[in-house]
Amino acid sequence: METGGRLAALSLLVSAVFSAGVYTFSPDQIDPLLYEEQLLWVSGAMGQVNTYRIPLLTFTPKGSLLAFAEARKSSAADIGAKFIAMRGSTDKGNTWSPTAFIVDDGAQRDGLNLGSVVVDEEVGSVILVYSVCFHLYNCQPSSTMMVESRDDGLSWSQPRNLSVQLGVKNFAPGPGFGIQKRYEPAKGRLVVCGHGTLMGNGVFCILSDDHGQKWYNGAALKSIPYNQEKKAQDFDPDECQPVEMTDGSIVINVRNQNNYHCRCRIVVRSNDGGLSLPIDDLFFDYELKDPAVAAGALQKDGVLFFTNPSNEHSRINMTLRWSLNDGKTWEKEAVQIWAGPSGYSSITSLVSGSPEDQKYIYVIYEKGHKNSVETVSFAKIHLYGGR
Fold first, then answer.
1. How many CB atoms lie within 10 A of CB 175?
2. How many CB atoms are closer than 10 A to CB 91?
3. Nearest to 346 by CA among 363, 330, 361
4. Do β-strands 172-173 and 82-89 pair in parallel, antiparallel, or remain unpaired?
5. What is the pTM of this model?
6. What spatial distance separates the first Cα and last Cα of the chain, rounded to whole Å?
7. Smallest Cα–Cα separation from 40: which of 59, 56, 29?
8. Which residues are tagged catalytic?
9. How far apart are CA 72 and CA 330, in angstroms?
């Protein structure tokens, strides 16, 4: 065979190996490196926004990155009027579009609160679920809302009130991402989990089996005592991030609001597609120390990743950890993304089957020098960059 023929054959072989999903790295080689970082939003730097908070991040079916945040108009408080801010990237986070305000709640005293973003890969849509009047501050009732994009975030539907289907209740999705189940049971189902009010708190999931047209109430793990005032160390599960595992179960990593049992994370599991969260499958992850905050979680190529301000008392020390056994234990190594003030975080990655996309995960988080809500930052992590 001529040299050119050998090269062509080798090229075809390499292409076939990569297209079959055979990767060049294995999980035990993970050695993450903060590859690059840039600020997406700076609080107080844009005329109509006082504070940017509650960052969400997702990849779309077409390979674009979409970042979202609450743009709080007049103060840093959870109540008050807000926009939903969005920026997009078509080159995996190298450059970003200007900020677009895709939802505006006007001048409501108890405006919108983000929220979960869920990608429906089967129909190519991006759905954003959020709440309005969650705190019942000079308004009622609370409503669960949804907007949808079918063109990679370039345009969005008018807000739709899901409370007609779900009933009137105080439900705050996420914050983070919802999932579309890739495995049985209930393959294709959309699952969005969140929490309730401080008195009626807990983990609650809403489900859709028809691509977001109809929603219904699923699992509920209620606080104790329920619908009563809480005291320190009461059982009070709060903000949460669901992740589907390769066995089809849904693992939900939960904020331990009142530090029940430990200053660490609560973990619960659903084996029926989000219909129930049996108490038998609840445990406390002592390795994931936490100051009671919304955290990020992601399952990628059989590895479970987790981000939070790794500190028992303060929102500082944004840290990436990973587990090679579905969260039973965590690797001793950890990567400090930011030593200073840091808060909520969310993780995503592009699952395309290519070796290049196997290398990276993407983290969005609240970051500051004096406090954690000064900026929203985007970090690109090379999972094998330390080698």
1. 29
2. 10
3. 363
4. unpaired
5. 0.93
6. 37
7. 56
8. 78, 239, 344, 366
9. 36
Report the C-alpha gap between 250 and 270 in whole angstroms. Answer: 5
| Cα angle, residue 133 at apex, residues 130 and 135 outer, rounded to 5° | 105
3-state secondary structure 103-150: EECCCCCECEEEEEEEEECCCCEEEEEEEECCCCCCCCCCEEEEEEEC
Distance between CA 51 and CA 41 in Å, rounded? 9
Amino acid of residue 9: A
The structure tokens listed for 180 are: 């579309």
The full DSSP string for 240-278 is EEEEE-TTS-EEEEEEETT--SSSEEEEEEESSSSS---
CB burial readout 64-90, b (16+ within 10 A) else e: bbbbbbbbbbeeeebbbbbbbbbbbbe
* Residue 11 scores a pLDDT above 50: no
Joined tokens for residue 126? 């991006």
Lateral strand order in the sheet of 360-367: 33-42, 375-382, 360-367, 335-348, 316-323, 303-309, 296-300
Rounded CA separation 54/69 (Å): 5
Q: What is the pLDDT of residues 199-240, one digit of tens each?
A: 999 999 999 999 999 999 999 999 999 999 999 999 999 999
